[in-house]
Write a structure and sequence with these properties.
Radius of gyration of chain B: 24 Å
CATH architecture of the largest domain in chain B: Orthogonal Bundle
CATH topology of the largest domain in chain A: Rossmann fold
CATH class of the largest domain in chain A: Alpha Beta
Number of helices of chain A: 19
Shape of chain A: elongated
Structural class of chain B: mainly alpha
Distance between the termini of chain B: 63 Å
CATH architecture of the largest domain in chain A: 3-Layer(aba) Sandwich
Number of strands of chain A: 17
Oligomer: heterodimer
Largest interface: A-B, 29 and 24 residues
CATH superfamily of the largest domain in chain B: MetI-like
Number of domains of chain A: 2
Bound molecules: adenosine-5'-diphosphate, magnesium ion
Order of helices and strands of chain B: HHHHHHHHHHHHHH
Shape of chain B: flat
CATH class of the largest domain in chain B: Mainly Alpha
Number of domains of chain B: 2
Distance between the termini of chain A: 34 Å
Number of strands of chain B: 0
Radius of gyration of chain A: 26 Å
Strand order of the largest sheet of chain A: 6-7-8-3-9-10
Helix content of chain B: over 70%
CATH superfamily of the largest domain in chain A: P-loop containing nucleotide triphosphate hydrolases
Structural class of chain A: alpha/beta
CATH topology of the largest domain in chain B: MetI-like fold
Helix content of chain A: 40-55%
């Protein structure tokens, strides 16, 4: 847990970069600091491990005023990863990741297994990468090593300053997803600085929006999108915040769990019945294990005499969305394929539900009505 | 037992057998640069191929001795031991050393052997008075004197090296300390002062420094050392500062963020990362020192500058050559060796281009 109590940072030139900031980061959560460039995100973060001193107020780390802990000791307990990565170029990947364990005087055998474990955790093959030097790795690999190094001695707290900021967009998404996966396992208390609102929404359990050294709003991503506190926040999150909010909702939270389906072996009449009864334009065809095999539309079902002739057989990945994808992904899929209804499958391709354009529309309308309650 | 090789003998024809030996040594040396390194270092062939170029030149035979081949001309000392016994001893020694080192680091050991070979080859030539005498009297037939009468090249070289080593060690020590100090946050205000000082040290002519030092300290070894230190300080300090300042600030920030202490950051992060530039400065300084040390003769410090100064004042060119050639060769050899040391000491991870 990290608590900021009325923290002020005034630089020697008189500039107040942080101006009376109070905030509590709960154990195990990712707290994102976001705001325009120069709003004091980095300064606030660096005061936690005392790379920058506090001018007034105090910061409690796990309940203790961080000035009561010797700086080096404090820093060894707090993981630190930055955009520029700052790997030590003269050290191998192994030596880089082993830095903090070495400082803490761990035994060599323990360090070795720890480094291997961390490299695997961040998706690098230890045997392949251990003895390489940072300059032999790609940017994405270097940033993975940077994260592994920050996790070096299993610190309970992590500070990450735009860690994926310098990485190409595709790799960045991969690293974000991987990191969220890692966080599920390790549940660190994390301060994550970014200037990218999409990254903030994706990574943050809670988001602190900063402006000129003060907190404007500190809430969950959903609340910030649904109820931006003022025009600054509203402008900051962007006009498409309703759409962004769809990105926070998982499909399985809103899908219809009783999708229109017929068995592959069934008679054509069965397909006609379902389509008629539910007033649809098509139904999905599944095999004996419930896996999606294709679909049959109304015209074909009425024209043809057997289901196998009437149906369009396609790999499920071409038409279905995964149940753990976001509603925004479903919308995107429907727009691209011009479907009004799209099947939802689990990781094995089993049909578990469906989601329709109309239900999405309802979701967006609900968001809009909520959003309009906000004072300008 | 020892037989003085004296100037008075004044032989005037080139001893052919000496030239053959020397030629052979140079040939082997050149070949050793092209020889394909063997993968299996334990295989003695690699070492064996090095062996002859180590001992051969030391055996430039003396035409004065009775059987013509017993003189080990390094230091012009007649050991009286037949050359083939020495050849075996040297070869054995060489094989043994090569086996020990070849496994560890070919990048340093081989160049060191090469440098040692060149050193021995040429110093046996300079010390091999009949050969030197014959050669120079052919080039300068009208010179009143050929061989420097007062002392041997070997001794002058030893004095010269002493000047260079003592002054360089002090220069490197002070220079690195200064460079490290003024790049620390708490002493950064001294940075302009120190750079001005070291720049001034190199702007003042060395002879001027010597001239100032002599009345203060007197004649001899130490005034020359002081002048050499002042003169050689610039490259060391300048490169130490440049190297330390060039370390990526985010690398240092990470090191702080990981919880390294300032001294851990200096020794484990900053110095290794700055090592290439720092070592280049040291090399420049030492090589400059080798040349500058010749001026020490004017302060009475001895060294290879002595025959140069003497030769210039009396216009006897063979004397000048006797000092200048070994000094130049020394500079080239030490530069080569330091370059290899630099290469070996530069961390591997930094030798990879980005
Ligand atoms: N050492 C310093 N001295 C004076 N001003 C500084 C210093 N470091 C940062 N600032 C200023 O403080 C403000 C906040 O900086 P920073 O925390 O780095 O912002 P960001 O939110 O972009 O990370 C900026 O306006 C910056 O110019
Ligand atoms: Mg910043």
């Amino acid at each position: 847990m990290i608590t900021f109590e009325n923290v002020v940072k005034q630089y020697p030139n008189g500039f107040r970069a942080v101006d009376g900031l109070s905030l509590e980061v709960a154990p195990g959560e990712i707290c994102v600091f976001i705001g325009p460039s120069g709003c004091g995100k980095t300064t606030t973060m660096r005061m936690v491990n005392r790379l920058i001193s506090v001018s007034s107020g105090r910061i409690l780390v796990e309940g203790r005023d961080n000035r009561d802990i010797p700086a080096e000791e404090l820093r060894r307990k707090i993981g630190y990863a930055i955009q520029q990565i700052g790997l030590f170029p003269h050290m191998t990947i192994y030596e880089n990741v082993a830095v903090v364990p070495h400082l803490l005087g761990w035994e060599e055998s323990r360090i070795r297994s720890q480094v291997d474990r961390l490299l695997e955790l961040v998706g690098l093959d230890p045997d392949e990468q251990r003895d390489k030097y940072p300059r032999q790795l790609s940017g994405g690999q270097q940033q993975r090593v940077g994260v592994a190094r920050a996790l070096g001695a299993d610190p309970p707290i992590m500070l990450m300053d735009e860690p994926f900021g310098a990485i190409d967009p595709i790799t960045r998404e991969v690293l974000q997803d991987e990191f969220l996966q890692i966080q599920k396992e390790i549940s660190k208390t994390i301060i994550f600085v970014t200037h990218d609102i999409d990254e903030a929404i994706k990574m943050g359990d809670r988001i602190a929006i900063l402006r000129e050294g003060r907190i404007v709003q500190f809430d969950t991503p959903d609340t910030i999108l649904a109820h931006p506190k003022n025009n600054f926040v509203r402008d900051f999150v962007g006009a498409d915040r309703a759409l962004k909010r769809l990105g926070l909702v998982r499909i399985n939270e809103v899908m219809d769990t009783d999708p229109p389906m017929v068995a592959y072996e069934a008679k054509i009449e069965e397909a006609r019945n379902i389509i008629q009864k539910r007033k649809l334009r098509s139904a999905f065809v599944v095999d004996r294990d419930g896996r999606l095999r294709g679909w049959v539309d109304k015209e074909a079902a009425e024209r043809e005499t057997s289901l196998t002739e009437a149906m369009a057989e396609v790999p499920y990945s071409d038409i279905a969305v995964r149940q753990n994808a976001t509603v925004r992904d479903a919308l995107s899929a429907m727009v691209t394929r011009s479907f009004r209804i799209t099947p939802v499958v689990d990781s094995k391709g089993k049909l578990v539900g469906s989601i329709s354009l109309r239900s999405l529309q309802e979701l967006v309308e609900r968001d809009d009505s909520e959003a309009s309650e906000v004072s300008p | 037992m020892t037989e003085e090789v004296t100037v008075t003998q004044g032989r005037r024809q080139v001893p052919v057998i000496s030239l053959i030996w020397l030629g052979l040594a140079v040939l082997l040396l050149v070949l050793s640069f092209f020889s394909v390194p063997l993968k299996d270092a334990r295989f003695a062939g690699e070492s064996a191929s090095l062996a002859p170029n180590f001992w051969l030149p030391t055996l430039a035979p003396d035409t004065n001795s009775r059987d013509g081949m017993t003189l080990i001309s390094v230091g012009a000392i007649d050991t009286g031991i037949p050359f083939w016994i020495l050849a075996f001893v040297f070869a054995g020694l060489e094989l043994w050393l090569a086996r020990i080192f070849a496994q560890r680091d070919e990048k340093l050991i081989r160049p060191l052997f090469r440098a040692a070979t060149v050193f021995l080859a040429f110093w046996s030539f300079f010390g091999h008075l009949p050969l030197w005498d014959a050669l120079l009297s052919t080039i300068f037939p009208r010179s009143p004197q050929i061989l420097y009468p007062r002392t041997t090249v070997i001794e002058l070289t030893a004095q010269h090296l002493e000047l260079v080593i003592v002054s360089s060690v002090i220069t490197i020590g002070i220079g690195l300390a200064l460079g490290i100090m003024v790049t620390r946050a708490q002493f950064r205000e001294f940075l302009p002062l120190v750079s001005d000082f070291v720049n001034a040290g190199q702007t003042v002519p060395t002879l001027g420094i010597v001239a100032i030092m002599v009345p203060i300290i007197g004649l001899g070894f130490w005034p020359a050392i002081v002048a050499l230190i002042l003169y050689g300080m610039l490259p060391v300090v300048r490169n130490a500062i440049a190297g330390l300042e060039a370390v990526d600030p985010f690398v240092i920030d990470s090191a702080r963020g990981m919880g390294m202490t300032p001294s851990q950051i200096l020794w484990q992060i900053e110095l290794p990362n700055a090592s290439r530039i720092i070592l280049a400065g040291i090399r420049t300084s030492v090589v400059i020192n080798i040349g500058t040390a010749a001026l020490g003769a004017y302060a009475g410090s001895g060294g290879l500058g002595v025959p140069i100064a003497g030769g210039l004042s009396q216009t006897i060119f063979p004397f000048v050559l006797l000092g200048a050639l070994p000094a130049a060769l020394l500079a080239i050899l030490i530069d080569y060796v330091l370059e290899r040391i630099e290469f070996v000491l530069t961390p591997k991870g930094l030798q990879i281009e980005k």
